[in-house]
């Protein structure tokens, strides 16, 4: 059973970049679904702000088209659609000039929550922050939401943080990593800290190793020129995989509160050792039914990786000796994200050798079907003596909690509502982002300096052979991607 939705306080949400791809595909559909679920109060208002000169009605028509495409189920209800569009307004605003700012000021209400979503290139963050301040638009409690990429290295992240800090306090800044908005990610915390069952075992004494996989079946496609300047390390590991690693490895925070959680995550990043390059595998997908990575990007000799796998160690008491294996890549066999905790085998087997032995495995699936399952060893039923097999204790949300539970809000819905509620727990703090870059930069510099080339891999595979070898070296294997 899914609990009742609690409406948030009335708000004015300005989407800078309101005519962009992210607004159309994610932000507006997320808001619309929250509206349909009656979480958005009548007084809520969404103001698109971008360079395009158009009337509010033209913008609403464009929003409606987008909703039909990206929230088709909810968009089928004409009354809901009309009700939502009633709350949508538009204003042409130039982030780099003076046009539109005074009008924006006069539109903003003083007595409601104010949020400004910076859905524009990071180069414009400073211009927006400065003008919001200069025109006296943002009041003291105003919140700003910024998207990834948050810098491309430590230097750029620091300067972005410094720019925002000139006009906003850290408590007003919401850095989105949509992986943190996923239901299962929060469930990871519920499983770890809401049960006595797992936490006593959640350490190097009982955990053999952890695997974190974020596999994508798509290539870099139309984003080739952007992606090629970034690569899997910057685009995925520094943010999404690092966040999943932190939540898996962190110590219990004293409370489920923003700074308590973020302090613990930060400690994990600081304890993360820099792996030797031999523990990192980088790859580029070859051509198959689709073009190769090198054909997808402009640089014919690109050395940017579309796949990365690595073995990491966390230097603290809890995890000493337990490796964390991370991998992520494009054009892999399937789209799948999961965290898999492999427990150790019992210290002594009381059964005959031919009974076999199997370690317990807890897997936390983030996509496609969110859920958690635990493999438990039992006796194979029937005659034939004691033979051990493992069976899943599967907790797919839909099976366990009824069909509506599978219909949980998506990450953007939850995160945007958290912004309005003023809850920063699932957002990255500035020092976390900087610590993650401080760990990432030397590795990128090291392989760039050596002139390493990513190894080619077959599209539709689990990545390069070397990634499997990384595990074989330790007598381990990756879970199947597909
Ligand atoms: P986009 O190019 O589709 O849209 C950019 C928007 O910025 C447009 O609305 C445009 O009018 C506005 N804009 C540009 N210059 C402006 C100016 N001077 N003044 C006012 N408005 C201006 O980009 P996008 O794909 O929507 O991405 C926006 C941001 O979100 C980028 O930083 C991107 O890296 C990030 N992001 C996008 C996605 C995605 O799926 N599209 C995912 C994650 C992060």
Automatic annotation (TrEMBL):
SUPFAM superfamilies: Glyceraldehyde-3-phosphate dehydrogenase-like, C-terminal domain (SSF55347), NAD(P)-binding Rossmann-fold domains (SSF51735). The gene is zwf. Residues 450-473 are annotated as: Disordered. Catalyzes the oxidation of glucose 6-phosphate to 6-phosphogluconolactone. Pathway: Carbohydrate degradation; pentose phosphate pathway; D-ribulose 5-phosphate from D-glucose 6-phosphate (oxidative stage): step 1/3. Keywords: Carbohydrate metabolism, Glucose metabolism, NADP, Oxidoreductase. Residues 189-479 form the Glucose-6-phosphate dehydrogenase C-terminal domain. Signal peptide: none annotated. Residues 14-187 form the Glucose-6-phosphate dehydrogenase NAD-binding domain. This is Glucose-6-phosphate 1-dehydrogenase. The keyword Kinase does not apply. It comes from the Bacteria. Substrate binds at residues 178, 182, 216, 235, 330. NADP(+) binds at residues 17-24, 51, 148. It catalyses: D-glucose 6-phosphate + NADP(+) = 6-phospho-D-glucono-1,5-lactone + NADPH + H(+). Belongs to the glucose-6-phosphate dehydrogenase family.
